[in-house]
Amino acid sequence: MKQAAIFDLDGVIVDTARFHYLAWKRLAAELGFQFTEAQNERLKGVSRMQSLEYLLDSGGLQNRFSQEEKEKMAARKNRWYGELIATLTEKDLLPGAERLLKELKAAGVAVVLGSASKNAPPILKSLGIQELFDAVVDGNMVQEAKPDPQVFTLGAELVGIPYEDCAVFEDSQAGIEAANRAVMYSIGVSRAGALQGCKEQIADLSLIGETSWYQKILLSSSEGDQSNV
Ligand code: B16
Ligand code: MG
C-alpha cells in the first residue's frame, strides 16, 4: 500500500454530531442555560473534556466547578450519549461512506480511522463496518486531542504510510488543522459552511468524485489496472 485515507468518524462516516448535541444540551439545561446548535459547532472534533469546558464557557460557568465535578458531568453526558448511539445501525451511515471505504480497499489504499471519540469502537460495531479498516485510532489511544495531529500521525504509522501520502477526511475545523499540522492532504466534509485551510471540501462522501484527490488516486489506480490487463 502506497497511500492511506484517514477518516474522522463523527460527522464524516456517521451523523453522531446530533447525538452529542442532544446530550450536551441536556446537561446545559440541567445547569440552567440554553445551548444552541451554533454554539455546538465549536465542540465538533474536540475531546470530551475540552467540549465540556466550551459548554461551561458558553453558559458563563467557566472556573466554577472542581475537576471531580466536571468529570461527573462529562460521565453523565456520556451516559446519555451512550443511550443514543445504542440505537445506531448501518442505516445511519452518511451518504457515500460505505461505498468509498470499499472502493479504497479494493484499490489497495490503506483505510484508517482517526477519531477523537472514546466511543468509536462500539459505534463501528453498531454500523457493522469494523472490518473495512486496516487500522483504528480512537480517543482512548492518544494523549493529545485535535488540533494536535497525534490521532492522524499514529494512524499513518500503524499502516506504515508516510504522512505526505495520507489524505484526511474531516468535518471539524480542529481536525482540518490537525491534518494540516501533520502535512497530510486535508479534505473537508461538511455542508455547514466553509472549513478554513482544507485543500478541498465536499458536502458528503458521495461527492468524492468531484475532488482532484480522487481523480489522482482512484482513477489513476483503475487506469493502472486496465493497462495491466
Ligand atoms: P467521546 P470525531 C469527536 O469525534 C466528536 O466530533 C466530538 O464532538 C467529541 O467531543 C469527541 O469525538 C469525543 O467523543 O465523548 O465519544 O469520546 O469527530 O473525532 O470522530
Ligand atoms: Mg468529526
Automatic annotation (TrEMBL):
<dbReference type="InterPro" id="IPR010972">
    <property type="entry name" value="Beta-PGM"/>
</dbReference>
<dbReference type="InterPro" id="IPR023198">
    <property type="entry name" value="PGP-like_dom2"/>
</dbReference>
<feature type="site" description="Important for catalytic activity and assists the phosphoryl transfer reaction to Asp8 by balancing charge and orienting the reacting groups">
    <location>
        <position position="146"/>
    </location>
</feature>
<feature type="active site" description="Nucleophile">
    <location>
        <position position="8"/>
    </location>
</feature>
<dbReference type="GO" id="GO:0008801">
    <property type="term" value="F:beta-phosphoglucomutase activity"/>
</dbReference>
<dbReference type="GO" id="GO:0005975">
    <property type="term" value="P:carbohydrate metabolic process"/>
</dbReference>
<dbReference type="InterPro" id="IPR023214">
    <property type="entry name" value="HAD_sf"/>
</dbReference>
<feature type="binding site">
    <location>
        <begin position="43"/>
        <end position="48"/>
    </location>
    <ligand>
        <name>substrate</name>
    </ligand>
</feature>
<comment type="similarity">
    <text>Belongs to the HAD-like hydrolase superfamily. CbbY/CbbZ/Gph/YieH family.</text>
</comment>
<feature type="binding site">
    <location>
        <position position="77"/>
    </location>
    <ligand>
        <name>substrate</name>
    </ligand>
</feature>
<feature type="binding site">
    <location>
        <position position="10"/>
    </location>
    <ligand>
        <name>Mg(2+)</name>
    </ligand>
</feature>
<feature type="binding site">
    <location>
        <position position="170"/>
    </location>
    <ligand>
        <name>Mg(2+)</name>
    </ligand>
</feature>
<keyword id="KW-0479">Metal-binding</keyword>
<feature type="active site" description="Proton donor/acceptor">
    <location>
        <position position="10"/>
    </location>
</feature>
<dbReference type="InterPro" id="IPR036412">
    <property type="entry name" value="HAD-like_sf"/>
</dbReference>
<protein>
    <recommendedName>
        <fullName>Beta-phosphoglucomutase</fullName>
        <ecNumber>5.4.2.6</ecNumber>
    </recommendedName>
</protein>
<feature type="site" description="Important for catalytic activity and assists the phosphoryl transfer reaction to Asp8 by balancing charge and orienting the reacting groups">
    <location>
        <position position="115"/>
    </location>
</feature>
<dbReference type="InterPro" id="IPR006439">
    <property type="entry name" value="HAD-SF_hydro_IA"/>
</dbReference>
<feature type="binding site">
    <location>
        <position position="51"/>
    </location>
    <ligand>
        <name>substrate</name>
    </ligand>
</feature>
<feature type="binding site">
    <location>
        <position position="171"/>
    </location>
    <ligand>
        <name>Mg(2+)</name>
    </ligand>
</feature>
<feature type="binding site">
    <location>
        <begin position="115"/>
        <end position="119"/>
    </location>
    <ligand>
        <name>substrate</name>
    </ligand>
</feature>
<dbReference type="InterPro" id="IPR051600">
    <property type="entry name" value="Beta-PGM-like"/>
</dbReference>
<dbReference type="InterPro" id="IPR010976">
    <property type="entry name" value="B-phosphoglucomutase_hydrolase"/>
</dbReference>
<feature type="binding site">
    <location>
        <position position="146"/>
    </location>
    <ligand>
        <name>substrate</name>
    </ligand>
</feature>
<keyword id="KW-0119">Carbohydrate metabolism</keyword>
<feature type="binding site">
    <location>
        <position position="24"/>
    </location>
    <ligand>
        <name>substrate</name>
    </ligand>
</feature>
<keyword id="KW-0460">Magnesium</keyword>
<feature type="binding site">
    <location>
        <begin position="8"/>
        <end position="10"/>
    </location>
    <ligand>
        <name>substrate</name>
    </ligand>
</feature>
<dbReference type="GO" id="GO:0000287">
    <property type="term" value="F:magnesium ion binding"/>
</dbReference>
<dbReference type="Pfam" id="PF00702">
    <property type="entry name" value="Hydrolase"/>
</dbReference>
<keyword id="KW-0597">Phosphoprotein</keyword>
<feature type="binding site">
    <location>
        <position position="8"/>
    </location>
    <ligand>
        <name>Mg(2+)</name>
    </ligand>
</feature>
<keyword id="KW-0413">Isomerase</keyword>
